[in-house]
């Protein structure tokens, strides 16, 4: 497999899409002329749309030089009243985060998506701010089913989270001090370029990516598990496809079983846990298979069981960020809709079960809790010390200490969208939640009554909780990402050592792999945050574009960051290919 040529034309910077005035200077002059004649027209504005469909050749075209807008209440799909935005005769869209509305306060303008990308420019700053306030109030009511009053906002967010409903009064000091608290972190200097190093065929049907911190990484697909060699410039295929046999059956365990959707490395990356959904369309599984990577054999087929009854799990993960490197690791974490637990592959006396004499080995429920009410857990992740963060269908993000899974130390309120994936930094100071239309970055740091700085995993955070920050695509990029443009799988870069700080964040949206500079997002003085109303939203990122929808994007372990690079390579997997992207700059 050879090295691919650099495809820098497929790797772009989000800032290049903001040339509304720059690219259309002539149209903008006409646009301003139209506005100057109608300065006193109430509820009026001008609209432009991006023509050319969702292709890179799309450009701005003036739709109406003078128009009007209104927010009206109508019956929705479920016969519930919902707010709709109407602009002139061409735009009628339900107020939601799917509009990807972006504010340009200095230009008195908003951009949003409704089948195309629209720009709406206002005649005065007062009218612009009035529109934004109305939009946010309508969005709140559409999401929570209640008027956006102060009383109702307190009901939704809680008194402790005043900064979430009034970001302008939030205590941002923890964001300001974040770099000082991250001792040993190395700032990223200069404007680094992205460059593709390797691209290889993945033999189709890629379901998941399991990156190793040692010699190898793995892709799970319809044929089996593809083995890749780790290098400091990315992963390179070894030409090995492990097709596991267990009683003559293929990787799924039986001919009717589905391809595993989850792969977890354990025991110094010599073992792999594979979990397949019990029913198509649902992630929950009744058990998993333990594979010896060196021999390619399924050594055990485990069942999930509690108090003699079969149960299911929707996700599994390692006890800590670095425990997959532990050769003696015998426990891992499990999550179901209303369960959070730790599984032990040893029997109750602490001895590893004898697989040869056990017909159907059962994992031991080591610790955990089965919640009686609907928590609707969706995803989880662990820190370097074993604390756990859990994301839920209602958008809540809960922090559990390493000593108790029964009650969350801190529960952050939802912002209206389900959390589909969650990650956390090694030190537990930052949590990244993924929703369909944005990522939410949360600072867990707080100062206790004794003046000590702690994280929300170790204690209740009180009432000085920093407001979160949102990471979004611009409306144009959201449109260009393709039909399947929902965010999924947001991750920090990967470190497993105290004192080292993650440097980037990555998420997938359609054909895009989107990369943010972590330090830039944390900087409260960042230019993205100027002239914004509501929660701070960052739109400065780099995009890696692929020919098909991306399955997963992950940074390799920090071990593989070379001396002239601010980051280890990024691995991007599509159903048919796997690519390695270097951040080490042009050569």
From TrEMBL:
Coiled coil stretches, renumbered: none
Region of interest: Disordered: 1-57
Bias (Acidic residues): 14-34
Transmembrane segments: none
Limits of the Vacuolar import/degradation Vid27 C-terminal domain: 243-530
Family matches, as Pfam families: DUF7135, VID27
Low complexity bias: start-end ranges: 39-55
Biased composition (Basic and acidic residues): 1-13
Gene Ontology CC: cytoplasm; nucleus
Positions of the DUF7135 domain: 49-158
Protein name: Vacuolar import/degradation Vid27 C-terminal domain-containing protein
């Amino acid at each position: 497999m050879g090295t691919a040529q650099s495809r820098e034309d497929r790797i772009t910077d989000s800032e290049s899409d903001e040339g509304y005035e720059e690219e259309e200077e002539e149209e903008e002059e006409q646009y301003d002329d139209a506005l100057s004649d109608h300065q006193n027209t109430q509820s009026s504005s001008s609209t432009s749309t991006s023509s050319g469909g969702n292709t890179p050749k799309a450009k701005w075209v003036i739709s109406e030089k003078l128009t009007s807008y209104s927010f009206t209440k109508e019956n929705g799909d479920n016969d519930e009243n919902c707010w709709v935005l109407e602009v002139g005769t061409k735009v009628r869209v339900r107020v939601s985060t799917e509009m990807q509305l972006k504010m340009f306060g200095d230009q008195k303008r908003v951009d949003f998506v409704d089948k195309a990308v629209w720009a709406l420019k206002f005649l005065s700053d007062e009218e612009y701010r009035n529109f934004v306030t109305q939009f946010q109030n309508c969005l709140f009511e559409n999401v929570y089913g209640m008027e956006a009053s102060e009383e109702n906002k307190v009901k939704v967010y809680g008194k402790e989270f005043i900064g979430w409903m009034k970001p302008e009064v939030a205590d941002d000091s923890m964001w300001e001090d974040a770099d000082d608290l991250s001792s040993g972190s190395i700032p990223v200097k200069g404007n680094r370029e992205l460059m593709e190093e390797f691209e290889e065929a993945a033999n189709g049907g890629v379901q998941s990516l399991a990156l190793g911190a040692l010699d190898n990484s793995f892709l799970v697909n319809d044929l089996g598990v593809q083995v890749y060699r780790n290098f400091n410039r990315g992963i390179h295929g070894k030409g090995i496809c492990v097709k596991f046999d267990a009683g003559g059956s293929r990787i799924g365990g039986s001919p009717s079983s589905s391809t595993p959707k989850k792969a977890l490395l354990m025991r110094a990356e010599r073992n792999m846990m594979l979990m397949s959904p019990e029913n198509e369309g649902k992630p929950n599984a009744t058990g998993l298979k333990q594979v010896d990577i060196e021999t390619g054999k399924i050594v055990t087929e485990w069942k999930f069981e509690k108090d003699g009854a079969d149960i299911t799990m929707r996700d599994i993960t390692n006890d800590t960020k670095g425990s997959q490197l532990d050769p003696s690791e015998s426990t891992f974490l499990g999550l179901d809709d209303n369960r959070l637990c730790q599984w032990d592959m040893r029997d109750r006396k602490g001895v590893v079960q004898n697989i040869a004499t056990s017909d159907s080995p059962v994992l031991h429920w080591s610790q955990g809790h089965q919640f009686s009410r609907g928590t609707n857990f969706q995803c989880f992740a662990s820190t370097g010390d074993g604390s756990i963060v859990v994301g839920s269908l209602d958008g809540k993000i809960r922090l559990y200490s390493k000593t108790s899974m029964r009650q969350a130390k801190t529960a952050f309120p939802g912002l209206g969208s389900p959390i589909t994936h969650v990650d956390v930094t090694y030190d537990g100071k930052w949590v990244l939640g993924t929703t369909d239309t944005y990522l939410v970055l949360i600072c867990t740091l707080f100062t206790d009554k004794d003046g000590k700085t702690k994280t929300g995993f170790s204690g209740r955070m009180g009432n000085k909780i920093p407001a979160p920050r949102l990471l979004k695509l611009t409306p144009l990029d959201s449109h260009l990402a393709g039909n399947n443009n929902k965010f999924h799988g947001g991750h920090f870069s990967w470190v497993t050592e105290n004192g080292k700080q993650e440097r980037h964040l990555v998420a997938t949206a359609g054909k895009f792999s989107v990369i943010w500079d972590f330090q830039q997002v944390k900087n409260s003085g960042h230019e993205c945050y100027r002239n914004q109303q509501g929660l701070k939203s960052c739109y400065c990122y780099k995009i890696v574009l692929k020919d098909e929808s991306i399955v997963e994007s992950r940074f390799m372990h920090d071990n593989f960051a070379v001396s002239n690079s601010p980051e280890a390579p990024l691995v991007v997997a599509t159903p048919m290919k796997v690519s390695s992207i270097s951040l080490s700059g042009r050569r």
